[in-house]
Design brief:
Distance between the termini: 17 Å
Structural class: alpha/beta
Number of helices: 6
CATH superfamily: Phosphoglycerate mutase-like
Length: 210
């Protein structure tokens, strides 16, 4: 994993988040996991520090008044969402399709620069199978379908989803015109982006919550 790029701000405020702007979609990148090279990343769990950060995350997320917290099936995302949901006293919903780009078939990169290069190749060739078991566009299509199902299921409420950096970056690139590699590098553990519904205008990005 890569720490946030120091050239990107910790907090972007791009638009007014008042209720007058309607509903919002908040895409949360999970909190800090225990990095275990002997396990596939999809099985990593949160560290003690990662769980602690979820309390601060929940306090930030409370401004969106969610009726539920939706999460990827991966433990690090599910744990993040569970802590947030418990603190906000709302239900937790674990959903297939919100998981990270599928890459458990690839050996662990001990050099972070090698991981960075692999993600760069993925973003540069979104229709080619250059890294992992999915192309970038296959991962994005899966993620979009899962998100749409959630958004449609609560038409009068704000939506909060806990997921993963690569698929969130791909989604923001497609719908908001942001460079996917730049935003991927910037997203901390945890972090979040806020979009307006239904138009998906980017309202806010908080890249570092500690």
């Amino acid at each position: 994993m890569r720490s946030p790029n120091s050239s990107w701000p910790r907090h972007w405020k791009l638009a007014d988040l008042s209720p007058a702007n309607g509903r919002t979609l908040t895409l949360v990148k999970h909190s800090l996991p225990i990095v275990d090279p002997d396990l596939p990343p999809s099985r990593w769990e949160l560290s003690h520090e990662g769980r602690r950060r979820c309390t601060t995350l929940a306090d930030r997320i409370s401004q969106f008044d969610p009726v539920a917290i939706h999460a990827s099936v991966e433990p690090k995302a599910t744990e993040t969402a569970k802590i947030v949901a418990q603190r906000l006293d709302v239900p937790l919903s674990v959903r297939e399709g919100l998981e990270e780009h599928h890459r458990d078939d690839v050996p662990f990169f001990r050099d972070p620069s090698d991981f960075d290069d692999a993600i760069a190749r993925l973003f540069e060739a979104p229709d080619d199978l250059v890294y992992g078991a999915e192309t970038a566009n296959q991962a994005l299509t899966r993620f979009e379908r899962a998100l749409l199902t959630i958004i449609d299921s609560q038409p009068n409420s704000n939506t909060v989803v806990v997921s993963h950096g690569t698929v969130i970056a791909l989604y923001l690139a497609r719908h908001c015109g942001i460079d996917p590699l730049g935003v991927w590098r910037s997203l901390g553990l945890p972090s979040y982006a806020v979009l307006a519904l239904p138009g998906l205008e980017l309202l806010d990005i908080v890249t570092d919550i500690t």
